[in-house]
Design brief:
Blueprint: H1 8-30, H2 32-51, H3 55-116, H4 120-137
Helix pairs in contact: 3-4
């Protein structure tokens, strides 16, 4: 690297500068607080002179990013609420179907016990009610009107 420095005076000058830089390094190590204060002050001054030119744009960009993030959060919350609403509707539907099935099972058990006791009219009424129920579940309009008898 220093092969290009041919003259002795140039080499002496380089050695002097190198030693001065080393001396500055030692001075910096001895005076860390002062160097920190001077460096920090220099950063504040540089920021004050050069950094505030674009501060308005930076604030605007930051607000835009925050608003975009808020929009994404609101969209996500809306999606989650819609999914919960769908789940709630499906659960309500399943609950209704479960209750209808339980009612049908219990009623059939009671009616079967009465038929075993000899009352066949109860079973005929039960079968008619079940047919009406199934007709309504299938979407029929004339369920239980007596036309299908």
């Amino acid at each position: 690297m220093f092969a290009s420095l041919r003259s002795a005076s140039m080499q002496k000058a380089f050695v002097f500068v190198r030693n001065e830089i080393r001396g500055c390094g030692k001075w910096i190590l001895k005076n860390r607080t002062l160097v920190g204060a001077l460096g920090g002050s220099g950063m504040i001054i540089a920021h004050a002179q050069y950094g505030q030119k674009n501060m308005g744009k930076e604030i605007y960009d930051f607000r835009t990013e925050v608003n975009d993030f808020r929009t994404e959060v609101n969209d996500f919350r809306t999606e989650v609420n819609a999914k919960f609403s769908r789940v709630d509707r499906e659960l309500a539907k399943l609950h209704g179907e479960n209750r209808a099935t339980q009612t049908l099972i219990l009623t059939s058990a009671v009616k079967a016990m009465k038929v075993m006791g000899g009352d066949k009219q109860v079973m005929k009424e039960f079968i008619k009610n079940v047919e009406n129920f199934l007709c309504r579940e299938a979407g029929g309009e004339d369920c239980g009107s007596g036309k299908n008898d």
